[in-house]
Hints:
- This protein has helices at residues 2-15, 19-31, 38-51, 55-63, 70-81, 87-99, 109-115, 120-133, 139-150, 156-165, 171-183, 187-195, 202-214, 218-231, 238-251, 254-266, 273-285, 289-298, 304-316, 320-333, 341-354, 357-369, 377-389, 393-401, 409-422, 425-438, 443-456, 459-472, 502-522; strands at residues 480-485, 488-493.
- By secondary structure, it is an all-alpha fold.
- Helix 25 (409-422) packs antiparallel against helix 26.
Amino acid sequence: xxxxxxxxxxxxxxxxxxxxxxxxxxxxxxxxxxxxxxxxxxxxxxxxxxxxxxxxxxxxxxxxxxxxxxxxxxxxxxxxxxxxxxxxxxxxxxxxxxxxxxxxxxxxxxxxxxxxxxxxxxxxxxxxxxxxxxxxxxxxxxxxxxxxxxxxxxxxxxxxxxxxxxxxxxxxxxxxxxxxxxxxxxxxxxxxxxxxxxxxxxxxxxxxxxxxxxxxxxxxxxxxxxxxxxxxxxxxxxxxxxxxxxxxxxxxxxxxxxxxxxxxxxxxxxxxxxxxxxxxxxxxxxxxxxxxxxxxxxxxxxxxxxxxxxxxxxxxxxxxxxxxxxxxxxxxxxxxxxxxxxxxxxxxxxxxxxxxxxxxxxxxxxxxxxxxxxxxxxxxxxxxxxxxxxxxxxxxxxxxxxxxxxxxxxxxxxxxxxxxxxxxxxxxxxxxxxxxxxxxxxxxxxxxxxxxxxxxxxxxxxxxxxxxxxxxxxxxxxxxxxxxxxxxxxxxxxxxxxxxxxxxxxxxxxxxxxxxxxxxxxx
Length: 523
């Protein structure tokens, strides 16, 4: 009889597709006296959570159980932990399990509790409980600890300690360490851990390539992508391609970007909006607006990111009319796509490059009035840059004084650039001092201020600034450029002589300067 009932319940659930069906089955089980039977409660909770995505009803079933077992706790905690929005509920239920009478957590629950951990102290608390209950030697628990600690900027040392003590390291634990180092900007350590991996999968490659791209190591990220393709053991997926295209866009490597575009077609990729948007962004940043527009138009399902990418491509290259035309088309099309903060940054940048001051004001007001978007520091920066380039400094200062947040480096930098163009040395001095207040050790800002004093003829002040820069040991981020030759990327920093062909390059440069001087003499 019990076997037949089990089969009947499972068949009914397999045919159910809404909450009403589930409630009818609940009523049927209640009439048979099985409302609190663990097996059926587990099946109902799992069906609610996974098939119907109705966690509230799953919790209702759970809360009416007099003594839920470990499997029931695990089912609901797992469902909560799978969604970032319900992590707090997962952790609260885990704590309830710890405080109550048996059942106690098993090694399958701890990874989900760690995933839902709301802060570093909670992670450390779960770690302590794992040690107390003797589950620390389980590989699945160790891997979860490494992953949880690696996501905390203050917990990377703890992640490394657990990782070093692991008896069985797998690809997941290695990938967690790679991601952790990349997250804090330590690309060198991420590469070193990646090199120690006995085996790699696509997520591990993606973790390192994405880490390089996000931390500005674009050349390294591109070389890793090449290596992944050449080795052939792991086929790049959409995430890999998007990261590689982003690196190409930042370095201006159009030829490699085209090759990746061809690779996407030849490899029978699912050509989704994710990849399409990355291609538009890459072609736009590399200056091939015609191809960017072609890819954009071929996308049948243009989402908000698609429109934003195209608008920003045109704005980046000063094609103000085209950027605004795409924006207006986006608004007219509708299709559920509504402009957001990023959209208006692109539109305001387009107005800036085109000198369209009145248009910029109008779109800034539209953003607030029609779309209810609260201006962020980036929007204020665009508007001040627009006014500064137009020489309308009184209006620019009114905007600065009316901001709802403290001006940042972009705001003062935009104002300073406008002052330099229009010769407003008095306001330039004020803006440069504000930049130094924000970042006193940035030598670039000190040099800007010294140059302003030089234009004003304040030579004593120039000497004071240079003296302060030396005493503070201020830094200046060196200029960097990339060049693509024969499918190879070469990276150069200002005053960097580490390249093996430095002598040859400087010799050619000196000969070009000499040739230029000879022409000037003849003229």
